[in-house]
Amino acid sequence: MKRWLKIFLVSAALVLAGFLTVTGWYLSRAIPIGTGYVAKYLCTSTFISQREPDAVFEEDVRPVNPLAKVMKWEVDRKGKVVTAKALWFFTSRAIYRKGCGCTLLAKTDEASLRRQDFFAFPKAYQKPAHPADAPWPDGAQGPVDPASLGMDTEKLQQAVAAAFAEPSPDRPRRTHAVVVVYDGHLVAEHYAPGFGPGMPLPGWSMTKSITNALVGILVKQGKLDIHTPAPVAQWQKADDPRHAITLDQLLRMSSGLQFDEVYDPLYDATDMLYGAYDFAAFAAGKKLETKPDSKWSYSSGTANIVARIVRNAAEKTDDHYYDFIRRELFDKIGMTRALIEPDGSGTFVGSSYGAATPRDWARFGLLYLNDGVWKDERILPEGWVKYTATPTPGAPKGEYGAHFWLNAGAPGHPENRPWPDAPRDTIAAQGYQGQRVIIIPSKKLVLVRFGATSHRPSWDTNAFIRDVIRAVPG
Predict the structure, then answer these.
(1) 250: Cβ contacts below 8 Å, ≥ 6 apart
(2) 220 with 92, same domain?
(3) How many domains does the chain have?
(4) In what order do the strands lie in the sheet with 339-340?
(5) Across-strand partners of 177?
(6) pLDDT tens-digit map of 85-136
């Protein structure tokens, strides 16, 4: 009996030791993801959006971060640093730098990041404010009378009000901002308390669509060709099967590269955003899982490979590639408060870290509504918007183009599409927690929505589009 008891106790001890080892390993990987998210998001929200961090943590972070109950954080406003801690042993820090925003300290240190040089002229990124006496998009005036454009004012007001309504208080929408542009005119906008037209807000994956624009500009300048093998250093060996991947395939998320777009610990997306120093290198190091163009698979890693390609191409003529982004895109269309934050290597995070005011995001949408032309100047190459809005082979509902979401519908079954009440020519930039820039050429509409919707079904993009379209003449 004693022998069996001894065997049992030894076995139990081994099982317990194994359990504790695995649990410890998991926590060592998982908790830094949670603290990294909090440090980075609070940094952006505090120093770029100028929101109160307490409110940000309670409204935006706590509902989506399971570590919130054991998390402590601190904002150093003088040093421009945010620190997040959990369970005594795990600490993450993010730093703010003027002009390029916040970066998480991952496999690097604060001194190294602060030595990075992003601008030829430190103040060049901050253009003068829009004239207060000029109408949008050139100026800062408020909405025009929708009725003067033939719109149904009451229906438009109802659509905007519905976007802020909370039909299920236990699963709130938390809409922060709505902007409606019709026929090039700002016709409606509304903001939740604490938000306003001058507040830059993070667009998350809407940044991918900005990356699309930057590629288009470089194509127009003759610096990139989307149909030749992508210039990625890790893939240049002739026997590397990734060597033939094109920039077009990267833009369409059909490269065949392995990447787990799952926002839980131990998956590629979170390991990249909250654990990697060089996001592009992290993603480019993934193996080829399927033949290029044989499968569509949404990937933030792919977008960061594209961002590195953009940086390299821009640096052929610009020592400071951030000047290129501002000069060739943001300044030309009046996105005066826009920026894209970099990773530790200094490459802008083309998948996720763009921020701009809701009105500036609407300007970006207007550029695509007008086929890439701004005030008689062609910013994007002719045919670029059409290319962007062409469905990617393999996207089952025709829902993805080139770093933009589409509403084309399934091949042969156009009624089977993401937003059945929206026209098929609708395209959109979409981001985490319900960030949206929706462009509908056939209705001459640009719709912008920002919020912190932690329960995805609480926000209905189709209903929002449907309600606004009801206010459009004809």
Answers:
(1) 230, 302, 305, 306, 309
(2) no
(3) 2
(4) 201-204, 354-356, 339-340
(5) 191, 450
(6) 998 789 999 999 999 999 999 999 999 999 998 876 555 445 667 899 999 9
Q: Is 129 inside any structural domain? A: no
Same domain, 159 and 107: no
Alpha-carbon 213 to chain mean position:
14
Q: Which residues 6+ apart lie within 8 Å of 334 measured at CB?
A: 130, 137, 138, 360, 363
CATH code, domain carrying 169: 3.40.710.10
Domain range for 268 is 146-469
- Reference 297, options 307, 309, 286, 308; nearest CA is 286
Q: For residue 234, give Cα distances in angstroms to 152, 243, 286, 300.
A: 55, 9, 10, 18
Residue with tokens 């763009």: 354
Which of 206, 286, 253 has its CA nearest to residue 448? 206
DSSP string, 22-82: HHHHHHHHHHHHHHHHHHHHHHHHHHTS---HHHHIIIIITTT-TTGGGEEEEEETTTTEE
- Using CA atoms, how far apart are residues 354 and 338, in angstroms rounded to an integer? 7
What number of residues does the chain have? Answer: 474
- Angle between helix 300-314 and helix 268-275 axes, rounded to 10 deg: 40
- Cα(187)–Cα(435) distance, rounded to whole angstroms? 20
Give the integer Cα–Cα distance in Å for 298 and 302. 8
Note the pLDDT tens digit of each residue in 234-269: 999 989 999 999 999 999 999 999 999 998 888 999
Q: Residue holding tokens 């990697």?
A: 276
Rounded to two decimals, the pTM is: 0.93
